[in-house]
UniProtKB/TrEMBL annotation:
Pfam families: Bac_luciferase (PF00296). This is LLM class flavin-dependent oxidoreductase. GO terms for biological process: alkanesulfonate catabolic process. Keywords: Flavoprotein, FMN, Monooxygenase, Oxidoreductase.
C-alpha cells in the first residue's frame, strides 16, 4: 500500500507566492515515507489557489525522492503540445518523479476561461492524452485532428522516465472507467466515493480492456485523512475546516453529478475517510488494500486548518501508521 499526501494549494495574501507551508509538508511527507505529494487544479477561485504545474515544479526543487503527482489536471482545456512539453520538463527537472493525473473537469467557468466548450470535453480529453503520450514517446508527431494540428512536432528533451511517466485519470461513471482502462495507467477515485461502491467499481475498471500502450491498471483511492493519538483528537482537528470545505464544494460542484455527496454528515465522511487513531487509520488503509487499491491519497489539510495540525498528522502517519502496513 502506497500513500500520497494531497497538498493544500489554497492561497491567501499572506502566503503568496512562496508556498512555504506546502514545501514544509512535502519535505515532511518525504521524510515520513509517503510515496507522492499530489496537487489538484482550480481556477477562478477568488480567495486564491496556486497554479498546479508551477507549484509542482517548486516542490520538485525542494524535495529529493518523493513522487510528484497531479490529481488531476483538466486535460480538455490545455493545448496538448504545451501540456506534454511542460510535464516532460517537470519529469526531467525532478529526475523522473512525475505521475500525471487528469480529469475531464466540470465547472463551466473554467472551460469558458480557456475558450473551450464543456460539450467537447470528452473529445478534447481523448485527443489531448493521445498526443501527450505520442509526444512523450515518438521521435516526431504529425496529427490533423478535430482540435489540434501538429506537423513534425517533437519534444527535446523528452521525459526522464522510460517509456514515459505514468498517467492517472479520475471519474466515476462507467464511460470514464472504460476510457481510463483504455488510455491511462491508473484510476483515481473521487474523495467522496462511498466505500460500499469501491469493490464493484474497482472490479469494473479492471474488467475493461486495456489499451496496448498502457503501463498497468493501478487503483488509487482518494480520501480525507487525519491521524492523531485518539479518534476524538482527529475529529477535533479536522471536522470544522473540513465542513467549511464541503460547504464550498456544494457551490463549486453545482453542475456536477456528485454535488449532493458534499452535504453529508460527519459520520458519513468519517466512515469513508482515513481518520482516527493510528490503529484505526492502519485498519482503514488495510481495508482499502483488501478491496484491491494500490495506493491511497490523503487530503489532510482543508483550508482553515493550522499548519501545525497538518504537520502533526503527517508525522503521525509516518511514525505510527505506515509501519503497521504491508508495503
Amino acid at each position: 500500500m502506497r500513500l500520497g499526501l494531497y497538498v493544500n494549494l489554497y492561497a491567501d495574501q499572506s502566503d503568496r507566492p512562496q508556498l512555504a507551508d506546502a514545501v514544509e509538508q512535502a519535505r515532511l511527507a518525504e521524510e515520513a515515507g509517503f510515496d507522492w505529494v499530489v496537487l489538484g487544479e482550480r481556477h477562478l477561485h477568488r480567495p486564491g489557489y496556486h497554479e498546479a504545474l508551477t507549484s509542482l515544479t517548486w516542490l520538485a526543487a525542494h524535495t529529493d525522492r518523493i513522487g510528484l503527482a497531479t490529481a488531476g489536471l483538466i486535460a480538455p482545456v490545455y493545448h496538448p503540445a504545451w501540456l506534454a512539453e511542460t510535464l516532460a520538463h517537470i519529469d526531467v527537472l525532478s529526475g523522473g518523479r512525475l505521475t500525471a493525473g487528469f480529469v475531464l473537469g466540470y465547472r463551466p467557468e473554467e472551460f469558458a476561461l480557456y475558450g473551450t466548450e464543456p460539450r467537447d470535453r470528452v473529445a478534447r480529453f481523448t485527443e489531448c492524452l493521445d498526443l501527450v503520450k505520442r509526444l512523450w514517446t515518438e521521435e516526431s508527431v504529425s496529427h490533423e485532428g478535430r482540435f489540434t494540428t501538429l506537423t513534425d512536432a517533437f519534444l527535446s528533451p523528452r521525459p526522464a522516465q522510460s517509456p514515459r511517466p505514468r498517467i492517472w485519470n479520475g471519474g466515476r461513471v462507467s464511460a470514464a472507467l472504460a476510457r481510463t482502462a483504455r488510455m491511462c495507467d491508473g484510476w483515481t477515485t473521487s474523495f467522496n466515493e462511498l466505500d460500499a461502491e469501491l469493490p464493484e467499481k474497482i472490479a469494473e475498471y479492471r474488467g475493461y480492456e486495456r489499451g496496448p500502450d498502457t503501463l498497468g491498471a493501478e487503483v488509487i483511492v482518494c480520501r480525507e485523512g487525519y491521524a492523531a493519538p485518539t479518534s476524538q483528537d482527529a475529529r477535533k482537528a479536522l471536522e470544522e475546516p473540513l465542513r467549511g470545505l464541503y460547504d464550498a464544494y456544494g457551490d463549486w460542484k453545482r453542475t456536477s453529478a456528485d454535488a449532493a455527496r458534499y452535504a453529508q454528515q460527519w459520520d458519513d465522511i468519517e466512515a469513508r475517510g482515513v481518520i482516527g487513531s493510528p490503529d484505526e487509520c492502519a485498519e482503514r488503509l488495510g481495508g482499502y488494500a483488501d478491496m484491491g487499491a494500490d495506493g491511497v491519497i490523503l487530503r489532510i489539510q482543508p483550508p482553515g486548518m493550522p499548519q501545525a495540525d497538518a504537520l502533526r498528522a503527517i508525522e503521525t502517519f509516518g511514525k505510527d501508521v505506515l509501519p503497521r502496513l504491508t508495503r
